[in-house]
Amino acid sequence: MNSMATGIGVVVIGRNEGLRLERCLSSLVGVAQKAVYVDSGSTDGSVPMALKLGVEVVELDMTVPFTAARARNEGFACVRRLLPALLYVQFVDGDCEVVEGWLPRAQAFLDENPQVAVVCGRRRERFPQRSIYNLMCDLEWDTPLGETKACGGDALIRADAFATVSGFRPELIAGEEPELCLRLRANGWKVWRLDGDMTLHDAAMTRFGQWWWRTLRGGYAFAEGAFLHGNAPEQHWRRESRRAWFWGLGIPLATIIAGLMLGWLGLLLLLVYPLQVARLARRGDRTARENWLLAFFLVLGKFPELLGQVKFLLDRFGTGKSALIEYK
């Protein structure tokens, strides 16, 4: 194992992650100077297990609405209090294992690049072939290298930069990492992705319902992100939101209107969906089976994304009440 990286604190968040959390925390023992685990009401013995490993534990007040953003902020406040010389903080989800060698490599990169506030690597799925849903997660995280716009839930961040922008927006129920990166970039910082493994993730997503709720949450994040930062120059997630409305509602409505005007011939408009699947499948670079499955779910996903958009509008402008959207 690599020697301890000084000046680095780690914030892990989770609830009832079991063996996954144990793997996560074990990968940090002796690597970071201080690790903090933020628990959100676990009932599986996560807290005593973390304490046994020598990890500081923060137990969230669950009478306050939970968000991952709030959990990370409280973890950051704790690690900064315990480690006054904190330079960098690595945020990790409790279902991820930090790859050996990542922290010293990421620290060296930030040391050498003072204009970069956030550095991330490749988050890989532990069992990508166990389900098409796990595979989609694995591909989702394979983003371009070099300077980028956003990171995911796992990243090493400059503590001072994070504090300067007041951390994550605690009220966001999803999409808090890209929103943070947007504000950091607006303050002159850069976000960077290195070519190398950072964490090993265990989505354990094997059911259609899990995928549906996760995709709905993504649609909600698109809507909220566009509401907050959709104007120029960023136009944050406006394109993603528009696609959800076009494919999830626009085509069905157009089909109904065409059907009323043309009868059954109007239903031919629905052929745009299989045509879009075929177009995306032909652009894929995996096996034929995987390309077609991924294309099918990308198109199908516009419907739960639309529902996520609607839920945001109801929460924001109607009588709805914002609540965490979970898929596990």
How many extended strands? 9
What do the pLDDT scores average to? 92
Any low-confidence stretches, pLDDT <50, length ≥5? none
Q: Tell me the fraction of residues in β-strands, as a range.
A: 15-25%
Please give a structural write-up.
With 328 residues, the chain is an alpha/beta fold. It folds into two domains: 202 residues, Spore Coat Polysaccharide Biosynthesis Protein SpsA, Chain A, CATH 3.90.550; 91 residues, no CATH class. Helices cover 47% and strands 18% of the residues. The chain is built from twelve helices and nine strands. Strands 1, 2, 3, 4, 5, 6, 7, 8 and 9 form a nine-stranded mixed β-sheet that branches. Helix 2 links the parallel strand 2 and strand 3. Helix 8 crosses helix 12 and helix 10 packs across helix 11. The longest helix has 25 residues. It is globular. It starts with a strand and ends in an 11-residue tail after the last helix. The model has no long low-confidence stretch (mean pLDDT 92).
Task: Summarize the SSE layout with pairings.
Layout: E1 5-14, H1 19-26, E2 32-39, H2 46-52, E3 56-59, H3 68-82, E4 88-93, E5 96-98, H4 102-112, E6 116-125, H5 132-140, E7 146-148, E8 155-158, H6 159-164, H7 176-186, E9 190-201, H8 208-229, H9 238-262, H10 272-283, H11 288-300, H12 302-317
Parallel strand pairs: 1-2, 1-4, 2-3, 6-9
Antiparallel strand pairs: 4-8, 5-9, 6-8, 7-9
Which structural traits does this protein have?
nine-stranded mixed sheet, globular, 47% helix, Spore Coat Polysaccharide Biosynthesis Protein SpsA, Chain A, 9 strands, 328 residues, alpha/beta, single chain
